[in-house]
Amino acid sequence: MNAQTVDTAENTGPSQSAQMRRRIFRHFGLLIGGGILIAIVLGALLAGALAPHDPYAQDLANRFADPVWKEAGSWEYILGTDHLGRDYLSRLLYGARISLLIGLVTALISGVIGTIMGVSAGYFGGKVDAVVMFLITVRLSMPVVLVALAVVALFGGSLLVVVTVLGLLLWDRFAVVMRSSTMQIRGLDYVTSAKALGCSTLRILLTEIMPNVLNNLIVIVTLEMAHAIILEAALSFLGLGVQPPLPSWGLMISEGKNMLLFEPWLITIPGVALFALIFAINMLGDGIRDVTAPENRN
Predict the structure, then answer these.
(1) Nearest-CA neighbor of 135 among 165, 172, 104, 190?
(2) Per-residue confidence at 295, pLDDT binned at 50, 70, 90?
(3) 233-267 residue pLDDT tens
(4) With 60 as the cut, is the pLDDT of residue 6 above it?
């Protein structure tokens, strides 16, 4: 009898880990986005070893050197050089560090603020919900780009200022989504059972609420990472973001705009890199949501 029971259990189907692996490898968007993002992250982490030149070294004798695919290009400067003779490939690799750092730190700061506010409002309701909704309304009435421009112009453009400003401005989507998700599940049976068993509020929030809103949180994290990277690029393009000589992709686009008609690759290369990073983050976030959502499991 025991042997039959064991045999039945073994034949019920693949394990949860096997099912998860199958869903991951069948989701092409997740694989494509993850592959591109891994390549960019590796390029950023290994920039010191991969960069053929110092990204800050200037060589005015080699200003606007053509990339290797052009007739006058050479393998010494694979992606050419900028207006100060700095190697473009080296600056592109180091610029990935800036973009990834800004995206991660901004999403972390805004995610912590917005998640705490949204989950608290959705779970407790009442006055807590009213206060949080008031704060969300105030935040939504403030245009992110204009506020960021004003603050950065007031305090000066730097990596620390840009990350802090964006982190304190992009929490509203976290709060709205987490509030809505928490309100949907706070009255379900497993939450009610945890209350009846005498579990503390903190334990209920951490063990019953958070695991069930994690899918939505993952999607918002990826969206806000991409949003923060685009905003940093916009601020740097306007000269109010990351300041020279740091190699920001937005700053590289700004520095190359005057040569758009003569050397369009100065804008195309960092622009394509920025597009690839945003595309990869969004594809990865959507893929993780799809493979972990209960309604999409088969």
Answers:
(1) 172
(2) low
(3) 888 888 788 888 888 888 888 888 888 888 888 99
(4) no
Distance of CA 223 to CAs 171, 277, 278, Å? 12, 12, 9
Handedness of CA 180, 232, 98, 266 (dihedral sign): positive
The total of other beta-carbon atoms located within 10 Å of residue 42's CB is 12
| CB neighbour list of residue 266: distance below 8 Å, 6 or more residues apart | 80, 82, 88, 252, 255, 256, 259, 260
The single residue listed with the structure tokens 């042997």 is 3
Torsion angle of alpha carbons 154, 158, 160, 162, nearest 10°? Answer: 70
Report yes or no: 31 and 288 within 8 Å, Cβ to Cβ.
no
Question: Domains plus CATH for the chain?
Answer: 19-63+79-296 (1.10.3720.10)
The rounded distance, in Å, linking the Cα atoms of 94 and 87 is 11
Distance, CA of 51 to CA of 74 (rounded, Å): 16
Quick: pLDDT tens for 53-102.
999 989 888 888 889 888 888 888 899 899 888 999 999 999 999 989 99
Q: How many CB atoms lie within 10 A of CB 11?
A: 7
Contact indicator for 101, 107 with CB cutoff of 8 Å? no
Contact indicator for 43, 232 with CB cutoff of 8 Å: no
